[in-house]
């Protein structure tokens, strides 16, 4: 059977009884060649701060980045947030961070050696996880996949998580769906309609989690198949949708 390719409809306006979970890269922020080069559009921090208040605190960032990176990007705002796809979590002032597997150091050194051969490729040390990026070096895609697959042999309890021109070596059990469910179990998220907005394969776990709890996913872009019910075209459309939410509820 052919895959469903019909575009998903636009999402409804943000409602005050929602719990809103927002991916960051490719959702709130446009992609850059490397994760360090992303740009936070003027006004976005203010919009998120106002919306966080309007939703009585039920707005969280859910990202593959580390929490410290999220805080630096959105300073001075410190939102409830999930980092490293669930390995780091901050809600209600409580911080929960997993520890690094010792075998990861050798894999990290080998990954750095590999990506240094391809200008534009990048190894990102995420503490408990390693991400290998090839957005700036398409020729590195195949060697990176071969490397990541073989590196798994030395990392029991880890798995590969493919993303948008990136692959991560990541501990088992960490994904955005589980992270969303853990936030939904407690105030200020508990009892609200959960909505997850994201662009990547890793966000599908989030879409499924919110759908199982009476909410829905909003896909950024046109990737199919997806568990999302609605879609927005790109991060600019997401930012406009959030700006509209503030204007409507004012
Ligand atoms: Mg993303």
- What small molecules does this complex bind? magnesium ion
Number of domains: 2
The whole-angstrom Rg is 18 Å
Structural class: alpha/beta
CATH architecture of the largest domain: 3-Layer(aba) Sandwich
Mean pLDDT: 91
What's the number of extended β-strand segments?
A: 12
CATH superfamily of the largest domain: HAD superfamily/HAD-like
Describe the strand arrangement of the main beta sheet, using strand numbers.
Answer: 5-4-3-2-1-10-11-12
Quickly name the level 1 CATH class of the largest domain.
Alpha Beta
**SSE succession:** EHEHEEEHEEHEEHEHEEH
Sum up the overall morphology in one term.
Answer: globular
Largest sheet geometry: 8 strands, mixed
What does this structure look like?
With 250 residues, the protein is of the alpha/beta class. The protein folds into two domains: 18-98 and 174-249, Rossmann fold (3-Layer(aba) Sandwich); 104-171, Trehalose-6-phosphate phosphatase related protein, domain 2 (Alpha-Beta Plaits, 2-Layer Sandwich), CATH 3.30.70. It is 29% helix and 21% strand. The protein has seven helices and twelve strands. It has helices spanning 44-54, 67-73, 104-115, 141-151, 176-184, 204-211, 235-249, and strands spanning 18-22, 59-62, 81-83, 88-91, 94-97, 122-125, 130-133, 158-162, 166-171, 193-198, 216-220, 230-232. The strands form two sheets. The protein has an eight-stranded mixed sheet with strand order 5-4-3-2-1-10-11-12, sandwiched between helices. A four-stranded antiparallel sheet has the order 6-7-9-8, covered by helices on one side. A hairpin with a 2-residue loop joins β4 and β5 (94-97). α3 (104-115) runs antiparallel to α4 and α5 (176-184) packs parallel to α6. The longest helix is centred in the last third of the chain and has 15 residues, at 235-249. It is globular and about 50 Å long. The model has no long low-confidence stretch (mean pLDDT 91). Bound molecules: magnesium ion. Magnesium ion binds next to loops.
């Amino acid at each position: 059977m052919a895959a469903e390719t019909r575009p998903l409809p636009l999402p409804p306006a943000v409602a005050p009884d929602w719990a809103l979970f927002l991916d960051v890269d490719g959702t709130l922020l446009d992609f850059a060649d490397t994760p360090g080069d992303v740009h936070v559009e003027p006004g976005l921090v203010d919009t998120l701060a106002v919306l966080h208040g309007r939703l009585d605190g039920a707005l969280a960032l859910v990202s593959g980045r580390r929490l410290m990176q999220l805080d630096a990007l959105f300073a001075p705002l410190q939102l409830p947030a999930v980092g490293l796809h669930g390995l780091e979590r901050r809600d209600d002032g409580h911080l929960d961070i997993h520890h690094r597997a010792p075998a990861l150091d050798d894999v990290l050194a080998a990954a750095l050696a590999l990506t240094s051969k391809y200008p534009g490729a990048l190894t990102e040390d995420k503490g408990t996880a390693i991400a290998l990026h090839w957005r700036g070096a398409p020729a590195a895609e195949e060697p990176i996949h071969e490397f990541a697959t073989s590196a798994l042999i030395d990392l029991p309890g880890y798995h590969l998580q493919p993303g948008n021109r990136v692959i991560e070596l990541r501990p088992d059990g960490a994904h955005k769906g589980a992270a969303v469910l853990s936030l939904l179990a407690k105030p200020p998220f508990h009892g609200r309609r959960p909505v997850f907005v994201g662009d990547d394969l890793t966000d599908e776990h989030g879409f499924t989690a919110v759908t199982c709890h009476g909410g829905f996913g909003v896909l950024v872009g046109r990737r199919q198949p997806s568990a999302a019910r609605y879609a927005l075209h790109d991060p600019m459309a997401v930012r406009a949708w959030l700006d509209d939410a503030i204007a409507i509820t004012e």
